[in-house]
Amino acid sequence: MMFPTRRTFLASGAAAAAVAAFIRDAGAEERPGPGARLTWYGQTASIPGTYNQLAPDADGEWIDQRTGERYTEFPTPGAAAAGFVTLDLESTEGGELVLWMTLLLAQGSRASGFIDANGLVGTRSVADYWISPEKLAELAPRATGSPRVIRGPYTAGGKTYDVVRIQSQSGGGWSQHTYDLKSGVCLASGTTVVGAAPLVRDTGNMTGRGAGSTSISWLRIAGLRRTSLPGPGARFPGAVMSLRTVRYSGTRSAGAAGSSPLTLPIDATFTIRSARPTHLTAGLVLPGAGDLERVVVPGVIGSLWMDPATLTSSGRGSRLDTDSLTGVEAIALGEQSGTVSFSLHAGAARRTYGYDPRSGLLTRFEFRQRAGLADEVTAMRLARAS
After folding, report:
1. Closest Cα partner for 29 from 182, 217, 226, 220?
2. Phi, psi (5° rounding) for residue 93?
3. Which pTM was predicted?
4. What Å distances lie between residue 82 and 262, 351, 374, CA to CA?
5. Mapping DSSP to helix (H, G, I), strand (E, B) and coil, where does residue 95 land?
6. Which backbone phi and psi does 341 adopt, to 5 degrees?
7. CA atoms of 354 and 352, how far apart (whole Å)
8. What is the pLDDT of residues 141-185, one digit of tens each?
9. Which pLDDT tens digit goes with each residue over 225-240?
């Protein structure tokens, strides 16, 4: 379980068989199944359409000569980022794919911070990352209009795949997704979106509308492997599936080294809407973020629950997994103060989760992230589970 931040920049038993086939054909040494991880690498950028823009401000220095209203003028922001998406296959029960998705910021070729983590579930498709081969086979080639459907070869990771590429255009936006026809796995994607026209200073010292910023992003398959993380095949017990509300309370603070941090109270409340042994669906209410849709997967580091048997078998200080692509490390910290803790490391970022060794419930967590010269820390404890 992770909280999104402003830096957030993704049928039948045949579903599991299709992904397993991709993992096997791509050269995974071990038998595919729960525990497999697919990783994508991507970049995104926002290109300003105007140099400067305006915002209404009663104390602003610029005045519209036509209306007399005041504005503040400031440079149009532009930003760029790189990151990883990892999907861990946790369950294929009933032909349904249950995956744990982690979004990571990247610096250079390694992850430098956490953005979000959430579950994904599907039988015919899973977001933009996978579409069942049966569904892809139904798409007739189409060379004109939108969407266009193009079939042909595509090379990724030194292997050539038979693919279908779906290209769509809407208004000022464009997108393309390339899927392996045999497995349905997305090998590459790209999008271009033009934003709303901002207020600008027009000729004659009057307001007008300038060109919106253009957002460009791309994603490509980077690799696959088998992890040694806990979670694959785990199932929620009845006591957890009967819960309806889980609330955490704590603080969020930020401050530069050597200075007094600004600390604010924060609550996080999960309202469980449906429960199955393989996953829970819930709404997560966070201050300023509204009601977020969450899919909670059992047993993974960061879930609301981990198997007590896993907790008691994790040795203190042992490294559970190191991802050679992203550089993320998972470490078992052992039992301290009545909780069994695990830590995820990505560059200077740390995510620590503490679980009750008897019930398996997540009882505390702490997120640490360096942002420029400041450290951001979120520390939460279980307040109620009912």
Report:
1. 226
2. -60, 130
3. 0.86
4. 29, 20, 21
5. helix
6. -115, 150
7. 7
8. 988 888 999 999 998 878 899 999 999 987 778 899 999 998 888
9. 889 999 999 999 999 9
